Amino acid sequence: MERFVKLTDEVKFEVVEGAIAVITIDRPERRNAINQGVIKGLEQAWKRLEEDGALRVGILTGSGDKAFCAGMDLKEAAAMRLKVPPRDMFPVLGDSMQVSKPTIAAVNGAALAGGWLFAQMCDLCIAADHATFGITEAKVGRGMPWAAPLIRMLPQRIFMEVVLTAQPLSARRAHELGYVNDVVPFPRLLERALGMAREIAANAPLTVKAARELVYLSAEMGRSAGLRAAHHLFESVYLSDDAQEGPQAFAEKRPPKWTGR
């Protein structure tokens, strides 16, 4: 696979260190707003990440320092006279698209409306210290059904405030609430996201995949059902070659050689 490719005029895909894909929404002149080129480019990007066996982690970010993504391009939406958006209109991980590998949002500026959705759908989130998160649909008379999972990610009254007032949260506030994993100065944003991606990519891939799934199934199940599902989930991990390689490498004081089998 090529190391760097423009999937569309609006989306770039770069492979870093052979195991990490950096996906960039590249429309800084329009605050990286979502148009058809962004939609098509992200669909291709997530598909590439999932299908390339060498890739372990994906990072999603935006160009420039103004906006991660300002949501749907409202000029395009007005021209379309869009009413109820089809559920598969946007490439949403865990909904219209399935990716089994960890993803990190590197939020380089304002993440508004659909931009918040793109940050929300990733597994982890690193934000620049000037970034903001806002669900602004109430300001333009649109809806936010995609925000339902936030009830597991934010306290209820904060969630209520965000959707009713349409006022943004700062990156610092989002971090205090546990929505953002880390906040760093903008020049260090990609470095910090890559550092986290390297830590994940160095771990046993079967364990990482199952652990990621564990988090999501635990959020949707009660305690007993979650425990039963988790034991089943990790059985194939325990029986893998990697489960023997890890302890052996530790005993021999060498880095493990993961095969994903």
Automatic annotation (TrEMBL):
Keyword Amino-acid biosynthesis annotated: no
Database matches in SUPFAM superfamilies: ClpP/crotonase
InterPro entries reported for this sequence: ClpP/crotonase-like_dom_sf (IPR029045), Enoyl-CoA_hydra/iso (IPR001753), Enoyl-CoA_hydra_C (IPR014748)
Domain of life of the organism encoding this protein: Bacteria
Keywords per UniProt: Isomerase, Lyase
Lineage: Bacteria, Pseudomonadati, Pseudomonadota, Betaproteobacteria, Burkholderiales
MF-aspect GO terms: isomerase activity; lyase activity
Family, as annotated: Belongs to the enoyl-CoA hydratase/isomerase family.
This protein's record includes keyword Lyase: yes
One biological process term in Gene Ontology: fatty acid beta-oxidation
Name by which UniProt lists this protein: Enoyl-CoA hydratase/isomerase family protein
UniProt-listed PANTHER family: ENOYL-COA HYDRATASE, MITOCHONDRIAL, ENOYL-COA HYDRATASE-RELATED
